[in-house]
Predict the structure.
Amino acid sequence: MPHYARGGFSRLTRRLTRRQFVARSISATVGAAALTRALSACGPTTDSNTALVIGTPESPVTLPTVGEPIADGLAPESGTLSVYNYADYVNPETIAAFEEQFDVKVELSIYDTEEIALAKMRSGGVRPDLIIGLTDSVLARFVAAELLQPLNKSYLTNFGNVIEGLRDPYYDLGAQYTVPYVIYTTGIGYRTDRGVDTSAFVGDEGWSQMWNPAYAGRAGVLDSYRDTISMALYRNGVYDPNSNDADALAQAGSDLEALAEAVRPQVDILAYQEIAAGNRDISLCWSGDMLAGVGYLPEGTSPDVLGFWYPQNSFTANDFFCIPRESQKPVLAHALVDFLLDTDNSLANQAFVGYQPALDALTAEALVDAGAIPESLVSSLVTPASFAAGKRLVSLTPEVDALWLDAWSRFTTG
Amino acid sequence: MSTPSPRSPGRTPARTRRASSTPSRAWSVFALPGTAWLAVFFAVPLYAVAAIAFGRIDPVFRNALPAWNPLRWEFATFADVLGEIVAGELRGVAVRTVLFVVVAVFCSLAIGYPVAYYLARSAGRTKTLILVLIVLPFWVSYLMRMLAWVNLLQRDGLVARFTSLFGIEHNWLDGSATAVTLGLVYGYVPFLILPLYATLERLDWRLVEAARDLGASPRQAFWRVTVPLSRPGVAAGLMLVALPMLGDYYTNDILSRSPRTEMLGNQIDFYLNAGTQPQRGAVLVLVLSFVLACLAWWYVRDNARSQEVR
């Protein structure tokens, strides 16, 4: 046994003279102070003193302008365009067509939640040229963090194709920072060939199917605290996906705990793969997931095995394109946005992504007529009327957000 | 006074011996790379975690605001998280983590000991082949191996198709504890086998033969001689599997993703990576580090005692 293994510390200290002890203590203190100062320079240590500008359908907002849009008439940059996006949220073939047209490369980076995207972009861990998939539930924080640049519409010749109601959206009047990408609602996706009781999908009780122990081990919910908690709120008749009611949110948290106990759901955003592959029978998901799932069905499986319940009382959303303030290729980023706003390109993109493009020409009827939608999934299409009727998830104030996160923590701890 | 003074001539030879066996200062230079490595990759990151744990959170963006100066540390969140571990919503996660790890370690030992014993005693020419087979999975990343299991265990996977031939329909990936525990066992059992094999290989088997000569049955010889002598290897193996299991999160992430199988590592991942509550994540890292340090300390002590006995 080494001689210092037992009582080694006291022996060592006994060997030190007083002078050595004082000298080493001073060295340690100075070293620690220097380290502290060095580390302090690594990141923010004080609160951001920022007020969020949050738009709601009842109270639209013009977001504060940070910086200037790029100048008109610039040529697209060459090289590699870095795009930050959800997984499987753009058609590789459409991207390949863009690459060929502009003789550039597109490099995709993936994020799982908007909160992660915000955290990584604020920390500088990710510096994309274009970000796809943000919603108005985080837009206020992205703008407050000064992460986005105002767009130059002169590069967006296809902007007129966007759904009329979203050309001047409540969350960003004048569409200074955002261009709509897709529209969708949140509902329940399921397999039609696995004995899911579709007759139970009626009214708010339809949500209760997610609590049905018959689906234990075969269910999933969205890894999106806003959507999953909203499901629990709607089930309880609270039709407010931005609720600040602490009691209602606490109840939703308890209900989700019960759901975890009864069903052991998988928590992710992979319903489009898992249901299609047959690993899951039922899942809280976005309407586009089931449309995307068609492409993930095993060979020879009919698309009719996929179904979607569109709730009567719903919450709807649209994702959008944004260009980060530090984009190194802003002209090329504008070019890709414009490329995806083209009706034909957008239709090709929809064939892979599943989600409905936010374009006037590509209505639910047009998609059905184009044969892009299986009959069993026509119910998942968002019409102008249903889109308008759905409540919108908007940014929450930090205090209200904390209530939501508390409820979510109760669920995720199982 | 008859007791010799430390300065008495009788002590001089001992002092001389000690002085000559003390490493010169020049040799301590060799410790510099290791010390620097520890400082840069262990001490500083650990301090950063503490600064986040005892710091604050930006109320708007929910990012960590580390308190680098210990005089400004705030302990409210630390106390909250500890309280939740003891009697709050994190207690279930903590208990579940310990339970999963205990079961997985026990299963690993039950699988690993016979394999290591066979390797050391009876494998003969096949020893090298078996060792290669044990090490072979390490050539593939842990993540890929787990994803492979997902493919095997999913509903139309090979395992399900095979068991259905015998009328057994079972959904392995149903968010239950079984899949996660078995995943932990599969992922870490080689770490237990290898140190155990090394110990058994070096074991003085003449002692076992002596026990047999003295009338012990094979079973008695095994339990009274082999097992006690292999204890250092068992302890090393248990440490090597238990420590990473306690902080594991991707096994659950891949094989379950259910809140009912969340482990402490998953909560840390959730708090830190979801970008919403990094302070709580940092506190959990500290708590977990403390538990792991206690286990490591126990191992070092146990190992030192074993060497003393020898």
Notes: Residues 65 and 110 of chain B are 46 Å apart (CA to CA). Chain B touches chain A through 50 residues (CB under 8 Å). Residues 31-74 of chain B form one domain.
